[in-house]
Sequence to fold (76 residues):
Amino acid sequence: MQPLFIALLALHGAIHFLGFAKGFELIEGNQFKVPVGRRAGALWLLTAILFIAVSVLFAFSQAAWWWVACPAIVLS
Fold:
């Protein structure tokens, strides 16, 4: 069950990288119905980094993983 949770956290973080790439015009991204500006793209990047960090912290059984998860969830 833990590997699945870790994979889902990492996948969720990876999906947020798409918002960053769209905001900074690194991809065309026709699937995005709403335009993403640079400020929003930066928040998408921050959220992606936080989710990847949560997945790493959880994988290595660090007790404080949820301290990083809380702002990631709020931003997401």
About this structure: DSSP finds three helices and no strands in the chain. The two ends are 23 Å apart (CA to CA). The helical segments are 2-23, 38-59, 65-75. The chain has a mean pLDDT of 93.
